[in-house]
C-alpha cells in the first residue's frame, strides 16, 4: 500500500525520515533498478543483469543483491555493507512526480505509507528546517532523484541500441554453496560478449559516439561480482 503526494514545506514541515539500512525499511530486496549512467559505480559492488518488463519486450537493468526473494546480502543489521548504494534505494521514500498531463519539470513526491517515514518525532532526519527551508538531506535527495530521473529517461536509447545489435542473451546462473545447497538464477539476460566482439568498427564507433559502449563494458565487468555475491551468501549461511 502506497500513499504518494507532492512534498510540501508547510504540510510536511516536521516530517522526518529514517536513514538507517534495514530489511524492514525497504532494503529487503533481491535486486533493485539501476540506470546506465550509474553502471560505472554499480559494477564495483554488484552484478548488473537485465530483465524484461512483464508482458512487454522492453528491458531494464538491475543490480543483484541476493539469490532469493527478499534477500539483500549487503545488509548487516542497520548497516549498509557496500561501497555504493544504488539510486533506486538511496532515494526512498521519495519519487519523481509530474504535473497533471505529464508535462513540465519533475516534482519531489513522497510515499507517506513508506516504512522510512519516522513515527517518533525525535528520530530520523528532518526534511525542512523551522523556517520551511530544505535541509541538506533533502537537497541531496533532490539531486539523486534528478540523476535517477535523467538516467531513466535516457536509458531508452541504450536499450534500443542493445536490441538493434542483439546484444542481450538469456542467462542462467547456478551457485553451489558450501553447505551443498544449490541456488539458480533464471529469467535474466546479460550482454552477449561474443556478439559484441563480432561487431564491426562502424557499429562500435556508433555505440561509442552515443555513449553506450562504456555502460556495456561496465555491465560485462560487473559479472565478476557474482563470485563475491556467492561468498557473501556462504558467509551469511556460516555465521548465521
Structural features, described:
- The chain crosses the membrane at residues 205-227.
- Keywords: Membrane, Transmembrane, Transmembrane helix.
- There is one protein chain.
- This protein is an alpha+beta fold.
- The protein contains 7 helices and 12 strands.
- It has one domain (4-239).
- The strands form 5 sheets. A 3-stranded antiparallel beta sheet has the order 1-9-8, covered by helices on one side. A 3-stranded antiparallel beta sheet has the order 3-5-4. The protein has a two-stranded antiparallel ribbon with strand order 2-10.
- The radius of gyration is 20 Å and the shape is globular.
- The two termini are 32 Å apart.
- The model has no long low-confidence stretch (mean pLDDT 92).
Report the sheet with the most strands, covering strand number, pairing sense and barrel closure. Answer: 3 strands, antiparallel
Strands side by side in the biggest sheet: 1-9-8
Globally, the shape reads globular
Roughly what fraction of the amino acids lie in strands? 15-25%
Task: Let me know the number of strands.
Answer: 12
How far the N terminus sits from the C terminus, by CA atoms, comes to 32 Å
Give the averaged pLDDT, no decimals. Answer: 92
- Using only C-alpha atoms, the radius of gyration works out to 20 Å
Q: Fraction of residues in helices?
A: 25-40%
Structural class: alpha+beta
Stretches where pLDDT is under 50 for at least 5 consecutive residues are none
Output the helix-strand order. EEEHEEEEHEEEHEEHHHH
What's the domain count? 1
Q: Count helical runs.
A: 7
Amino acid at each position: 500500500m502506497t500513499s504518494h503526494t507532492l512534498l510540501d514545506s508547510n504540510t510536511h514541515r516536521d516530517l522526518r525520515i529514517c536513514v538507517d539500512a534495514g530489511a524492514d525499511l525497504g532494503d529487503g530486496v533481491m535486486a533493485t533498478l539501476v540506470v546506465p549512467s550509474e553502471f560505472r559505480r554499480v559494477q564495483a559492488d554488484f552484478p548488473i543483469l537485465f530483465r524484461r518488463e512483464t508482458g512487454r519486450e522492453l528491458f531494464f537493468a538491475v543490480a543483484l543483491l541476493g539469490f532469493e526473494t527478499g534477500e539483500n546480502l549487503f545488509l548487516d543489521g542497520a548497516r549498509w555493507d557496500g561501497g555504493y548504494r544504488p539510486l533506486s534505494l538511496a532515494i526512498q521514500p521519495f519519487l519523481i512526480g509530474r504535473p497533471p498531463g505529464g508535462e513540465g519539470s519533475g516534482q519531489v513526491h513522497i510515499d507517506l505509507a513508506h516504512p522510512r517515514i519516522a513515527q517518533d518525532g525525535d528520530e530520523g532526519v528532518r526534511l525542512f528546517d523551522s523556517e520551511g527551508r530544505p535541509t541538506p538531506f533533502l537537497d541531496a535527495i533532490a539531486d539523486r532523484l534528478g540523476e535517477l530521473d535523467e538516467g531513466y529517461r535516457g536509458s531508452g536509447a541504450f536499450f534500443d541500441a542493445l536490441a538493434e545489435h542483439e546484444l542481450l542473451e538469456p542467462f542462467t546462473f547456478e551457485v553451489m554453496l558450501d553447505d551443498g545447497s544449490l541456488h539458480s538464477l533464471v529469467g535474466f539476460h546479460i550482454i552477449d560478449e561474443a556478439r559484441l566482439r563480432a561487431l564491426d568498427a562502424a557499429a562500435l564507433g556508433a555505440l561509442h559516439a552515443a555513449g553506450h559502449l562504456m555502460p556495456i563494458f561496465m555491465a560485462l565487468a560487473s559479472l565478476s561480482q557474482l563470485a563475491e555475491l556467492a561468498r557473501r551468501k556462504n558467509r551469511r549461511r556460516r555465521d548465521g
